[in-house]
Amino acid sequence: MAGLVRTCVILGLSAIAAFTLLASMGEPAGLSDAFSTFRLHFAFGASAIALMGLWLGRVTAIAGLALAFVNLLAGDHPLSPVVPPANGKPLKVMTFNTLYRVENGDRIISEIARHDPDIVFLQEQVVGKQWIYERLKTRYPFQVYCRRVGECDTAILSRYPWISAEAKKVGRDGASFALARFGAELNNLTVATVHLKWPQYSSQLAQLARAWDHLKDSKGEIILAGDFNAVPWSGTLRTFSANTGLRTTGGLAATWPARHHRTGRPCLWCVPQLQIDHVLVSSGIRVTAAAVGKDLGSDHLPVHVELELPMLVSRTANADQFVATTCGICGAIGH
């Protein structure tokens, strides 16, 4: 019996070591990010084996703890932490993958009414769910989404007027994308939502690069939210964050899988384990609160984030400040 347990422990450690190596293969690739998604699972499994190693031998325990440490260390990632409100303009946003095949529109509307976000980002919004937009038209008169089957599955709803907006697929792999540009009321803010394909099926970096092509010339701050199908420590999000300065918000909070990813029904393994739904923000935006919402019948959970935009300084205010500063300097010279 002891021999069988030892063999199982060695095989388990070997498997976790192999998966950890695959998750660390240089530049982000489909295979690498597909395994890096489960780093916390690897860390948990290695820790469990380390505990068993206390009975089997010191070497086994040390090996298990070392693998757990490596995976936990690799989970570190760029983050915009939650901070107290200052004097900026508050803005509440919500992002949610609604799940194609599920009729959960009433739940979505109730969740929106309960949290009252200023901007809503939706993914997997098929044509059959477009009645939701009409129900929300009074509260969110500014709406952009793909109107025909096969175009895209993303949508943005806003109570603030925007200057321009569009929804479409971007990149060779056809990531769903929607974008809206606001004026002075929101300090020239640009917001976008994206729905990426899983890393083992496509190049997520290439999809994000095409989305960034539409965002990089923005005049103000940027919010990019949606279903990235990537955990915050993935090579894709690390590289994208390093290249653009956008960072994930809040702490670790699993959003998937809340239900079966095809039927939307509860299942034995349907316990949220992975954080793949995100709100990314540029450096000038403060994050004052972040939380995961309730089960709405999708395999994803909604994400609610409260933000604070930098206040818009008018040209007149800038001119007054310049005159005051200049007069102060002149006075100092005169003395």
Kindly summarize this structure in a few lines:
This protein has 335 residues and is α+β, with helices and mostly antiparallel strands. It contains 9 helices and 13 strands. It folds into 2 domains: 2-74; 80-309, Endonuclease/exonuclease/phosphatase (Deoxyribonuclease I, Chain A, 4-Layer Sandwich), CATH 3.60.10.10.
Tell me what you see in this structure.
By secondary structure, this protein is of the alpha+beta class. The protein folds into two domains: 2-74; 80-309, Deoxyribonuclease I, Chain A (4-Layer Sandwich), CATH 3.60.10. Helices cover 36% and strands 22% of the residues. The chain has helices spanning 2-23, 30-36, 39-56, 58-74, 105-115, 131-135, 204-213, 235-244, 315-334, and strands at 79-80, 89-97, 119-123, 142-145, 155-158, 162-170, 175-182, 190-195, 222-227, 247-249, 277-281, 286-292, 303-309. The chain has a seven-stranded mixed beta sheet. Strands 4-5-3-2-13-12 form a six-stranded mixed beta sheet, with no helix packed on it. Helix 1 runs parallel beside helix 4 (58-74). The longest helix is centred in the first third of the chain and has 22 residues, at 2-23. It is globular, with a radius of gyration of 23 Å. Residues 314-335 have low confidence and may be disordered.
Shape: globular
Oligomer: single chain
* Total beta-strand segments: 13
Question: How many domains would you count in the coordinates?
Answer: 2
How much of the sequence lies in strands comes to 15-25%
CATH fold field value of the largest domain: Deoxyribonuclease I, Chain A
Helical content (DSSP H or I, runs of 4+): 25-40%
Determine the CATH superfamily of the largest domain.
Answer: Endonuclease/exonuclease/phosphatase
Rounded to an integer in angstroms, the radius of gyration calculated over CA atoms is 23 Å
CA distance, first residue to last residue: 93 Å
CATH class category name of the largest domain: Alpha Beta
* Sheet with most strands: 7 strands, mixed
- Average pLDDT reading: 88
